[in-house]
Structure formats: structure tokens, C-alpha cells
């Protein structure tokens, strides 16, 4: 048996006994369903769906209609259990805690058959004191309740007034009352995603045992003192002191590259204790600041903190510290009413260009480090500098933010509330408060996060009356809104993190929203704050339809994913635009029609005699349409940076909806592969459906290999608009794609994400251009 045991750095200098140990409970657990008819092994971290799949008890959940076929999984109540031996003599430990970094979501926890606690929030970290129940041989059980059933119960119990929406639109085929449970909101379905409200232990689980005292957390914030022109570091360490007497000692903080070392004397009284340290970096030392991608380096400094405490107890921690300032500037603009809304990083105004991030999979155990790295590397390769972690998903894993720090990606971090009103009864608020306090602590040391935002679109939902609330009832909901986002979340942010701004919602009017009592008459105003803008009816080639807003934090158009992506989750009878499958996967009302309508404004719609050809061509055309629309709109926002026209403009951010997909279905997701900092542009003299003289282009490619990169030497027999290169399911990135080929030859590079060969690429290679349809 492999012993998952880490003796922490806290060692007694003289004796042989460790002062703290961490024993991992990751790995194999047993899982069983409510009536005991199904028993199977399951991995932790993991979830029920993944366990069932790994045991061959279900197919791929994303295959065809399996989101509906497997609804029973989320409606059942599952139990996770494990037996294990405690590796050391229990009597040696003053305190033993069970630590759960993430439980999804509603569970009762039994340790040696004693109930030790409950969980109701997948975004919270739980610590339960098991000192009095732990034995040499132990059993642990997490009895889950279906989050769907729990949400229904909670909503039913909320009798004073309804908290809408009750259910998602029918087209989403989702579950109801997600706003009553602190779980990934899109796991009950979204307009681009399936309903898989799974259950499980989705993060680390371990036992921590210690004597004397234990360091629970350690966070830090670099703060720039403008008047003194120097950097300081505010460090906070939270201890659990189990010794009956005060514990004294010294702390030594060192950042060698900044020639900084400081020593502090501390004395910790018994109980939960917070130590606050203030480290000054001499202004004679040059501190290199952290910059967003494209604006400078992402310099970070290694820091160590050593606590030398009574009884020879030494605790050492290390971290990377980055120095940067961020300001949200809301000031009058000459020639335009309202206020600006832009970010200054290290004192410099920066245009935020990027996209919106959603969870990368319905089942987080499938989101690997490699996947995160590939996606985030693609973000910087495409010259973006910002991602918004959208409020309907999850607070991402640590690695996501570490990569954003490293790559220079600024993060707009929503709190996880989206497109709904929320209850504010005490139980709900307590759970949210614990979640928010924990997430601030976990995330605040990351320089990449430049703003906290209270929610996604809830101010708009309330003020634009999405849920048809009568005028007389509205004050109840406004009160709830202010209670949740202002009196609780904002208050916790202000107390816990002074190093970045907070806004209550997105979209919001910023300072104007505050002035109007935290809810604006029109949160989507072009004169204040940020806007979300969607218009599927107007012609997207006409830039006049776009808002000249201060900041566009969401906008976009749907497309279908490539045929090679769909092929894996469908069967032959699904391969037409009007198939049951094509309707089923579309979760946005009227989405398929809207795409064809928008494409039809400028392109001839495919009508081959071969139905499969028509399907593939239609998919291709929706992608061309999406690329053109997003390009036109993005370029409009970039242009609006330096203009005030009709009293509107000075746009300082464009984040399109959305970067990534959760499953293989139509959505707003796209990732453009372009290495140039600005686009090579062209002007079409007419819509392409009216173009004359286009003839079928025969495009060939000679593929060669140069190290890890593959070179595609293309040759065309005619002018070819929107040349799309496809290598099927081989993951990787082309240096350019979807381009206009006016020259006879062109060289494109392919960067594979996994090892592949020239012959594999040759076999999978497929090229399409608009002339194939015409
Ligand atoms: C906005 C987002 C998402 C949604 C998208 C597309 O409302 O915040 O809720 O998926 O538009 O409809």
C-alpha cells in the first residue's frame, strides 16, 4: 500500500516527533447509490459520472442524448466511503482535522459512524475537528443528497415570495431552482451547456494532525505607497494554537532578489490567531513590476517565510510575489456625458482585449493541467491579455491563476452568481459569506486578478425586469440584491482585499450604479461601466449596430463546432442541420435559425445534393459568419478607443463571449489563431453572395516537418475566401486559419499539442473554402 503521507516542514528541532502531519485521502473510494443497487470504486478527486464511466457502467456522457438518458444519476443520492488506518499513534496529536478542499455539494459527513458535519457549498473549503472520533482504523462516509432535489426543497421552503427564475428555458433541457444551491450554476444547464449536476469530492481531501500550533493560511498583498514611492507587502498568517500556553517566537521574511530580509517577534495566544506582518521594500531597490501580456514582463520574486516558534517548532513557506498596481478609472470625459471605465496597470491605461472563460468541462476531474496550459497559452498566442471568469461557472483551480500570473493574462473575476435572483435567508448568507471569505484568501495574492465583480447580469435581470416582477414587489428584490452583493459580498471584499477594485455586477454602471442606490435604471448604459451586447437580427457587417460603450465585457455570435468534433458524439442519422440531434444540442432558443439568417445576409447557403456535404458546409459557413461578425465587432470596439462620436466612445475593453466550450455543441466559443498584432484587413466590394467570378479553388498542401512544427505549403488554383484548414481530431494550432487567399501560394505553420507525424496529418488534412459551396 502506498502511504499518502507528508510530514510537514513543521519539525521539532530537538525531538524526533513531527509537530504536524498531513495524510492524504485521495485515491480509491467506494461509491454506492441511494438504494444500494449500485456499488463501484471511484477516484477522489472525482465525481459520480466519471466513476460510472470508468467502470463501464455508462457511455460517454456527452454522446448524443446522454445528458437526458443519464438524468437519473443526478437525481439519486450517492454515498462516498473509505476505510483507512491512521498512520501514527493518535495519542501523540493534540488536534486532528479532516480537510475537504471541495465537496460537490450537499452532504452529511460521518467519521467512524459519528456525524461530524455537513456541506452545502461546492465553493467552500471545509475543516472538521475529528480529534475525539479518530481511531487507529477509521471509516469515513460522505452521504450526498441530490443537489437537484435539495434545490427544489429549498425553493419550496422559501414561502414568503418566489425567487425567480424557477426553471431554465425548456430549450436548455435543464434542472430547476439552481439559485437555491451554491453549486456551479451552469451545471443545471445553460444556453451553451448540458445539465450534469454531478456529486462527488471534487478537490483534495486529507487529514491534518498537529501539536502546539498549525499554520492554516498564509496570504499576502503587495501595496504601493504612492507618496513614499515604495512597495510594501502585507502578509497575513492564520494559526490554530492548540497549546494551552502562549506560543512565542520569531518570523523571518526574505526576498533575496530584492535584498530584503526582516525579522519579527510574535506571540500567539491559544485559539485561532491571525498574524499580520508588514514588509517594506527599500526604495533604493528596483522592483520590476508585473505586466499584462504585450506590455512587459511578468517578473515575480521568490519569497520565504520562516516561523521559528517555541519548542523548536519551525514552519517554512515559500511563494512567488509579483508587484503591480491596478486602478479602475471612472472620471469625466470631455465631450461625452457620464464617466470613463478603464483600467490602469502600474499607472498606464491598458485596453483589455480578450474573452470570457467558462468551465472547461462538466466534470472537473477531466480538466487537466495540460488542457489549462494549452487553452491559456492559446489566449496569449492570439494576442489577448484578459479573461473574464464568468459568474455562472466555478472559481477556477489554483493552477489556472498561476498560469495567468505566469503568462500575463489579466483576470476579471466574477463571484459565482449568474442570470438569476437569489435568496437572502440567514443560512444561505452564512454559506455565501464563508465561500467569499475563503475565495478572497485563496486568490488575492494573484496579480493576474485585477477586479472582483459581484455577479453576472443580475442587476440587469432585476432592473430590466426579466422575470416580470410587479412594480410593487420590486423593492423586496432590490433589498435582497443589496443585502447579498453590497452588505455581504462587498463588505467582505473591502475587509479582505484592498489591492483591487470591486464592482457589484457585470454589466453595471460602476459609480453611477452606486449613486443610484446600487441598481441603475439601465445597467447597460453606453455612458458608464461595462455593457453586454447581443444582436442576432441586425447585419453584423454594419458596424453602426454596435454600442459605442465604455467597455464591452460580453458580445458574440454562435457557430457550430467542426464536423470532426461532432462526429465523436453523434451517429450518421444525426448529420443534418434539422436532425433531432442538431435541435437537441442547440440550447439557445432559435439559435440554429439565427445562424442561418445571419450567414444568409452575406453568403449563399449550402445546397449540395449530398446531405452530408450540406451539413459540413453549413457548419463551415456558421463558423465563417461567426468569425466575420466577431471580427467586425471587435475591430469596432478597438477603433472606438480613441473616438468620441455623437458624445459616445472611449471604449477601453472588448471581451468576446466566449473562449471555450464545455461540450460539443453550438455555442459562442471561438479561438482565433493569429500571430499578428493587428489583422491584415480587406474590403469586400459586395456581400460574398453577390460576388461574381469566384470559381472553384483547388487547394493543395505539401506538409513538411521542422522540429516540433509542421509546415503547410499551400497552393491554390484561384482566389479563395475563408480558407479553412482542418486536421480532424489532431489537437494543435495553425498560425492562421479562415483566411482570404489571394496569392497563389502561402505557408502556414501547425503547432501540434500532442506528438503527431507528417503521415497522420496528411491523412487527416482537409481544406475548405467558400468556393466549395458556390
Ligand atoms: C450572456 C452570458 C451567458 C450567456 C451568453 C449568451 O448572458 O452571461 O449567460 O451564455 O450571454 O447568451
Automatic annotation (TrEMBL):
Name of protein: Beta-mannosidase
Family per similarity comment: Belongs to the glycosyl hydrolase 2 family.
Annotated EC: 3.2.1.25
Function description: Exoglycosidase that cleaves the single beta-linked mannose residue from the non-reducing end of all N-linked glycoprotein oligosaccharides.
Keyword annotations from UniProtKB, A to Z: Disulfide bond, Glycoprotein, Glycosidase, Hydrolase, Lysosome, Signal
Reaction equations catalysed: Hydrolysis of terminal, non-reducing beta-D-mannose residues in beta-D-mannosides
Top-level taxon of the source organism: Eukaryota
Subunit structure: Monomer.
Lineage of producing organism: Eukaryota, Metazoa, Chordata, Craniata, Vertebrata
Every Glycoside hydrolase family 2 catalytic domain range: 343-503
Amino acid at each position: 500500500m502506498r502511504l499518502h503521507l507528508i510530514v510537514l516542514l513543521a519539525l521539532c528541532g530537538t525531538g524526533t516527533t513531527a509537530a504536524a502531519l498531513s495524510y492524504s485521502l485521495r485515491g480509491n473510494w467506494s461509491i454506492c447509490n441511494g438504494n444500494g443497487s449500485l456499488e463501484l470504486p471511484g477516484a477522489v478527486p472525482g465525481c459520480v459520472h466519471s466513476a460510472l464511466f470508468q467502470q463501464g457502467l455508462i457511455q460517454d456522457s456527452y454522446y448524443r442524448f446522454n445528458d437526458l438518458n443519464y438524468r437519473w444519476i443526478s437525481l439519486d443520492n450517492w454515498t462516498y466511503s473509505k476505510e483507512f488506518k491512521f498512520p501514527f499513534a493518535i495519542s501523540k496529536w493534540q488536534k486532528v482535522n479532516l480537510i475537504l478542499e471541495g465537496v460537490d455539494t450537499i452532504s452529511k459527513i460521518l467519521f467512524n459512524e459519528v456525524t461530524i458535519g455537513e456541506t452545502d457549498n461546492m465553493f467552500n473549503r471545509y475543516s472538521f475537528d475529528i480529534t475525539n472520533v479518530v481511531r487507529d482504523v477509521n471509516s469515513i462516509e460522505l452521504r450526498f443528497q441530490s443537489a437537484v432535489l435539495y434545490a427544489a426543497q429549498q425553493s419550496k421552503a422559501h414561502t414568503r415570495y418566489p425567487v425567480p427564475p424557477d426553471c431554465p428555458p425548456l430549450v436548455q433541457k435543464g434542472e430547476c431552482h439552481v439559485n437555491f444551491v451554491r453549486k456551479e450554476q451552469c451545471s443545471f444547464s445553460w444556453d451553451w451547456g448540458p445539465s450534469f449536476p454531478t456529486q462527488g469530492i471534487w478537490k483534495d481531501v486529507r487529514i491534518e494532525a498537529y501539536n502546539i500550533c498549525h499554520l492554516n493560511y498564509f496570504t499576502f498583498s503587495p501595496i504601493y505607497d504612492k507618496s513614499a514611492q515604495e512597495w510594501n507587502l502585507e502578509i497575513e498568517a492564520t494559526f490554530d494554537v492548540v497549546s494551552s500556553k502562549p506560543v512565542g517566537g520569531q518570523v523571518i521574511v526574505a526576498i533575496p532578489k530584492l535584498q530584503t530580509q526582516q525579522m519579527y517577534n510574535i506571540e500567539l495566544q491559544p485559539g485561532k490567531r491571525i498574524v499580520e506582518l508588514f514588509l517594506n521594500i527599500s526604495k533604493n531597490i528596483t522592483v520590476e513590476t508585473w505586466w499584462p501580456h504585450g506590455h512587459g514582463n511578468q517578473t515575480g520574486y521568490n519569497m520565504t517565510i520562516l516561523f521559528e516558534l517555541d519548542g523548536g517548532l519551525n514552519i517554512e513557506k515559500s511563494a512567488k510575489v509579483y508587484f503591480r498596481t491596478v486602478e479602475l478609472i471612472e472620471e469625466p470625459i470631455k465631450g461625452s456625458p457620464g464617466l470613463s471605465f478603464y483600467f490602469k496597470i502600474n499607472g498606464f491605461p491598458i485596453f483589455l482585449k480578450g474573452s470570457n472563460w467558462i468551465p472547461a468541462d462538466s466534470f472537473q476531474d477531466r480538466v487537466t493541467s495540460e488542457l489549462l496550459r494549452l487553452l491559456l497559452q492559446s489566449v496569449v498566442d492570439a494576442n489577448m491579455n484578459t479573461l473574464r471568469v464568468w459568474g455562472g461557472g466555478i472559481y477556477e483551480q489554483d493552477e489556472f491563476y498561476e498560469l495567468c500570473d505566469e503568462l500575463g493574462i489579466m483576470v476579471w473575476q466574477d463571484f459565482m452568481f449568474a442570470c438569476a435572483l437569489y435568496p437572502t435567508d440567514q443560512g444561505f448568507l452564512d454559506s455565501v459569506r464563508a465561500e467569499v471569505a475563503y475565495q478572497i484568501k485563496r486568490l488575492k495574492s494573484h496579480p493576474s486578478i485585477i477586479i472582483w465583480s459581484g455577479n453576472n447580469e443580475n442587476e440587469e435581470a432585476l432592473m430590466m425586469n426579466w422575470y416580470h416582477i410587479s412594480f410593487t414587489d420590486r423593492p423586496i428584490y432590490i433589498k435582497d440584491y443589496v443585502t447579498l452583493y453590497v452588505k455581504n459580498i462587498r463588505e467582505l471584499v473591502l475587509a479582505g482585499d484592498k489591492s483591487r477594485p470591486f464592482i457589484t455586477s457585470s454589466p453595471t454602471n460602476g459609480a453611477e450604479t452606486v449613486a443610484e442606490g446600487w441598481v441603475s435604471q439601465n445597467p447597460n448604459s453606453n455612458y458608464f461601466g461595462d455593457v453586454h451586447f447581443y444582436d442576432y437580427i441586425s447585419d453584423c457587417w454594419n458596424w453602426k449596430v454596435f454600442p459605442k460603450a465604455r467597455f464591452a465585457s460580453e458580445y458574440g455570435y454562435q457557430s457550430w463546432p467542426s464536423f470532426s468534433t461532432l462526429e465523436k458524439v453523434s451517429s450518421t442519422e444525426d448529420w443534418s442541420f434539422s436532425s433531432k440531434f442538431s435541435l437537441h444540442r442547440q440550447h439557445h432558443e432559435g439559435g440554429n435559425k439565427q445562424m442561418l439568417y445571419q450567414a444568409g445576409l452575406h453568403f449563399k447557403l449550402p445546397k449540395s445534393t449530398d446531405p452530408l456535404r450540406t451539413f459540413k458546409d453549413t457548419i463551415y459557413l456558421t463558423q465563417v459568419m461567426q468569425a466575420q461578425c466577431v471580427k467586425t465587432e471587435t475591430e469596432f470596439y478597438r477603433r472606438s478607443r480613441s473616438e468620441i462620436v455623437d458624445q459616445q466612445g472611449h471604449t477601453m475593453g472588448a471581451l468576446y463571449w466566449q473562449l471555450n466550450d464545455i461540450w460539443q455543441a453550438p455555442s459562442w466559443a471561438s479561438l482565433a489563431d493569429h500571430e499578428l498584432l493587428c489583422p491584415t484587413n480587406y474590403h469586400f466590394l459586395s456581400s460574398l453572395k453577390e460576388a461574381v467570378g469566384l470559381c472553384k479553388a483547388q487547394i493543395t498542401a505539401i506538409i513538411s516537418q521542422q522540429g516540433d512544427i509542421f509546415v503547410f505549403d499551400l497552393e491554390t488554383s484561384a482566389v479563395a475566401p475563408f480558407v479553412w484548414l482542418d486536421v480532424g481530431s489532431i489537437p494543435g494550432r495553425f498560425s492562421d486559419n479562415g483566411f482570404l487567399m489571394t496569392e497563389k501560394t502561402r505557408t502556414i505553420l501547425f503547432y501540434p499539442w500532442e506528438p503527431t507525424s507528417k503521415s497522420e496529418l496528411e491523412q487527416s488534412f482537409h481544406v475548405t473554402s467558400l468556393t466549395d459551396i458556390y
